[in-house]
Amino acid sequence: MYKFQEGFPENFLWGGATAANQVEGAYLEGGKGLSTSDFAAYKDPYAKGKVDNFTFNVTSTELAEYKENPEKYLFPKRWGIDFYNRYKEDIALFAEMGFKTFRMSISWVRIFPTGLEDTPNEEGLAFYDKVFDECLKYGIEPLVTMSHYEMPIALTEKYNGWASRELIGLFEKYARVIFDRYKTKVKYWITFNEMNMNLQSLYTGAGVLADKIKPEEMMQVTYQASHHQFLASAVAVKAIREIIPTAQIGCMINQIEAYAHTTKPEDQLQALKSNQLNMFYPDVQARGEYPTYMARYFKDNGIEIAMEAGDEAILKEGTVDFVAISYYMSHVAEAREDAAQLAGSFDSPIKNEYLELSQWDWPIDPIGLRISLMKLYDRYEKPLYVCENGLGAKDELTLDGKVHDDYRIDYLRKHVEQMKEAIKDGVNLLGYTTWGCIDLVSCGTSQMSKRYGFIYVDQDDEGKGSLERYRKDSFYWYKQVIESNGENLAYIDGLSENV
Known about the structure:
Blueprint: E1 13-17, H1 20-23, H2 60-68, H3 83-97, E2 101-105, H4 108-111, H5 122-137, E3 141-147, H6 153-159, H7 166-181, E4 188-192, H8 202-206, H9 218-243, E5 248-254, E6 258-260, H10 265-287, H11 293-300, H12 311-317, E7 322-326, E8 331-333, H13 339-342, E9 356-357, E10 363-364, H14 366-380, E11 384-388, H15 406-424, E12 429-435, E13 455-457, E14 469-471, H16 473-483, H17 495-498
Helix pairs in contact: 3-5, 7-9, 9-12, 14-15
């Protein structure tokens, strides 16, 4: 029988999260190949007269232009924050905060530069050996995402990314190599980052050049590409159980809880459907089969998933051990013609009047996190993991090297409080890794000025700066949160000066 849990469990995994394409840099060092992220050009987030939250899309025309005239553009993910050369310094800072875990990703192109090689790149493998060893030296468990918004650009050009079934075998080759190499160093894995974001950007999540697809076939290709990723995830799960039987492997979605705009039944129904479109992804990966509600959705939208004999068995055999989420906001659903396109959108025109907005116009909804965790645990009865949550803001570095980010502390404190309430509600929560624990290059617009970290990195949107690291007030706040296992959430004004 389940026993009431008053607070965070003793073995709770506190930490922070990054992605290789947003921190490593060194894009041509160590035998690395080029990835889709290496062609994410900086785009002025205010070019359209407002904050443009998610613009990481590349067409075949843009890709050709970027390759032909790279000197005309800025590609900030190519330099990141130089984690490749500064990982020891950064991990030491994580250890100073008391991290129990560090969520990071492996860059596929550091292991297989084009994805097509038969033999992995030893320099790339050795780099991650060093990173994992450095983490373990401080007792920090790596939580590794296998595919985080980057894949070999060669596979995009040759196959149009995950639109092709050919990638399943190539991903399995990659998976087996890293599982075998790091089987004594990594216990926790995630297959794909936020796979449901395929619905927002096929290039980002699946390496697909959308302009190579007829508009009327876009939804078909989106779900077919997702099917191929489902199979790749399941194959990876099977492989890890052969190679590292004691490991835990999970799936991940960007969780955006949808509330109905009104009590009007049509709005309520749309909220349910919006949540189903998000839940579709963990439904397949955690339950091992396509949910029945998608049959009508596919029929209504002219989608027919091409399945081969054995696909359903692969999905059933490859269910994940836990469900991980990123959580930044909730969403308002309304019965309208474009409702399906708005589901899970970062930039919904329907605003929740009861919520404050961040500087990037993202609604701030800590209670939505609790609601999400409760619904997810009720649905899957598998352990959950909040592996991304954070506040993007324009931080100011003072002349004496301080960053007073009480607004970030307030944001995180409220979300930690709601996680604690969810645990009291009976949710089995494994850990919490805040997004961008160190300032990094933003996913959507490749900008540096949208900062999430506990650690300030001296670099601007054009890559200029000393790259020096500075502890923000939130650094010391999070340290006390971890030390107290989530019990001491108090904020003292000017904290960094008093510690």
